[in-house]
Amino acid sequence: MEITYEDFKKVQIRVGTVLSVKNNEKAHQPALVLEVDFGKEIGIKTSSAKITHYYNSDNLVGEQIIAVCNFPSKNIAGFESEILVLGAMEKDGKVVLIHPSKKVANGLEII
Fold this sequence. Notes:
Layout: H1 5-9, E1 13-23, E2 32-37, H2 39-42, E3 44-49, H3 57-60, E4 64-68, E5 74-76, E6 79-81, E7 84-85, E8 87-89, E9 95-97
C-alpha cells in the first residue's frame, strides 16, 4: 500500500537518548521499559519494547535511539507505553535498534 508524502509528514519520528532501562516484569514476552529524553519540545517519554535479545541497561543507557513520538499511549502489561522505538526485525524475531551514525541533538526530527 502506498502512502502520500502528506501521510508521512504526520508521523513524528525523533531521536532521543535512553536515560534508564528496566525489565517489564508483567509482560508476557521479555520486554524492557525505556525512559528516553527527546529534548525540551517533547520531553521524556517511556516505552515497553521487546528488544531483550541484544539490549539491556548496560548497553542502552546513554545511547541514542529513534522512535515514533506521536502515537497515542498504549497499555502494555500494565505499563503506559508512549512511544514506538524503531528497529529492524531479523528473521528469527530479534530486533536491532535503529540509531544515528553520530551523536545529534535530542528531539531532532527524522525526515
